[in-house]
Amino acid sequence: MTSLSTARDRYNAANSLLCLLQALEGRVAVVELRNEMAVKGLISQVDGFMNVSLQNATVQGNDDHHYHFEEFFVKARNIRYVQIPEDIDITEAIKNQLEGKPKAHKTDMSSTTKAKLARKRQKETLKFIQQQQQAEKNEIEPQPPGTSQETDE
Question: From CA 13, how far away is CA 58, in angstroms rounded?
Answer without folding.
Answer: 27
